[in-house]
């Protein structure tokens, strides 16, 4: 993994709403509709945040009908832990 990929992860983590999303996903998969209610943000804002989280591989998604369902990526979370360990051991 290179600095560019690491920076993408740091960027995904560097926002209050995205950290709140990750916190909400700790209990398991959530529908976008539930995240919208919990966060009190617009659908377009949620889409923006989810794109960054998914592009950084921190969050997985699946489509069910018209709704997206999101969950924390086990592989992505392990990668973040290892990445941080490389920078701050």
From TrEMBL:
- Which keywords label this protein? DNA-binding, Transcription, Transcription regulation
The record ties this protein, via SMART domains, to: HTH_ARSR
At the top level, the lineage of the source is: Bacteria
Source organism of the structure:
Bullifex porci
UniProt name for this protein: Winged helix-turn-helix transcriptional regulator
Database matches in SUPFAM superfamilies: Winged helix' DNA-binding domain (SSF46785)
A Pfam family this chain is assigned to: HTH_5
The major lineage groups are: Bacteria, Pseudomonadati, Spirochaetota, Spirochaetia, Spirochaetales
Q: Does the keyword Membrane apply?
A: no
Concerning InterPro entries, the annotation shows: ArsR-like_HTH (IPR011991), HTH_ArsR_DNA-bd_dom (IPR001845), HTH_MetalResp_TranReg (IPR051081), WH-like_DNA-bd_sf (IPR036388), WH_DNA-bd_sf (IPR036390)
